[in-house]
Design a protein that fits this description.
Blueprint: H1 2-20, H2 28-59, H3 67-87
Helix pairs in contact: 1-2, 1-3
Length: 88
């Protein structure tokens, strides 16, 4: 679920919104990656963040590490829904 909502949902709706000029990137890191690398910069940032979260998940002790994909799925779902709202 985390990969679907945070990885794909947020990324795809963000890319569509930016490509159509119907949104902007609010996060400072994402805005920097967008300014430097365009839409490809956003893809790179998403891949780097997913790799970092995976690394933290691997290092986190049980049972607390379940919070990492749960948080990503929650944030990803909220952001994807919001992006969809902005696109409509």
């Amino acid at each position: 679920m985390a990969l679907v909502s945070y990885g794909a949902g947020d990324l795809l709706t963000t890319l569509v919104g930016l490509a159509l000029g119907r949104g902007s990137e609010a996060g400072p890191a994402a805005a920097t990656f967008l300014a430097v690398g365009g839409l490809a910069g956003i893809v790179v940032l998403k891949l780097v963040s997913l790799a970092a979260f995976y690394g933290v998940w691997r290092l986190a002790p049980e049972p607390g590490r379940v919070a990492i994909p749960l948080a990503l799925a929650t944030v990803g779902t909220v952001v994807t829904v919001w992006n969809g709202y902005v696109l409509v």
